[in-house]
Amino acid sequence: MGWNSWNKFAERVTDKDVRDMADAMASNGMKAAGYVYINIDDTWESDRDANGMIRTNSKFPDMKALADYVHSKGLKLGIYSSPGPKTCAGYEGSYGHELQDAKQYVAWGIDYLKYGWCSAGGVYDNTPENGRITMEAAYAKMGHALLEATKNTNRKIVYSLCQYGNNNVGEWGAKVGGNLWRTTGDIGDRWQSMMNLGFNLQIGREKAAGPGHWNDPDMLEIGNGGMTDTEYQTHMSLWSLLAAPLLAGNDFREMKPGIREILTNKEVIAVDQDKLGKQAVRVYPPAPAEEKESVSKAQRGSTSGGLLQVFARPLADGGRAVGLFNLGDAPAKVTAKWSDIGITGSHKVRDLWKHEDRGAVKDEFTVEVPLHGVVLIKIAK
Ligand code: GLA
Q: Which of 109, 169, 322, 366 could be disulfide-bonded to 67 (CB atoms 3.0-4.6 Å)?
């Protein structure tokens, strides 16, 4: 859980913005709710010195001082690079300097690295026969470098792979040291984009997720203004059911109370952070056996699975978290059937957005859901 600069600031992010976000996160309830990483995305890089050491540009005059500042707030600092010679925004990448860069990150006090493929496609063999093996090796190279650089220190650097889910990353992401890996292209602050990434493109990926290594459907757009609060609630609920990284992407200096409530709802965050670490599956309509099927449907631009959908994940205490979603353009009744979730009989139900107990419910739960909205419930053991 944390914050990343890209969705709101893109190439404009500065040292001051990062300090302001750290100040805000430490005092506005975000840190108390569990958010800890402050991640600088692309565009902090300059060139290399005579020894090949990476330098920051004028937006980030002193990375070590910035890390010290963020740490002084009880938070952690993340950074971004690429396995290619250039980053996605055209800045200096880590190609040929992996260990050197990892050592520099450790010297600065960096706690998290997001590593975006981009120009690596131009220097590594991308052919269908070799693409996967070279991509895996490029990510393993930095994975090893991070281990080597943190050896004999008490630091650990979280490793975030950003290669859009290509080459079945779920099968090898953890093996190369990845703690999370993107499963899609970039999110946009629009209903259609969030829905496509979160609903359509996650089906069948749950096998790969578990404690320490997670599917990443990209960062949150909550509070950036392109969706309604109801849609942002859907965004937060779905990411939590998917056990996804919760990386806020808004400007905390102008955060409205309603947005803060969405981002800091402790009962919803408890679903995301549940210790069992099981990613939700779509139980209604039943997800296709083949992941490929849903991906190809999504790429054709349709909503795979229809407008009323139910996602469920088992929780460590024996309960279940269940999201009843309405993707349609009018309010609708949605039903979660116990038989679809794999339980029977009567169970206590709690509404996690309203913070209300709904009493004991037998066999199925039906509720009116607003358009593009969700009712997120916990079903007790
Ligand atoms: C890629 C990533 C984005 C962001 C940009 C930065 O596009 O997917 O999340 O990191 O690079 O250039």
A: 109
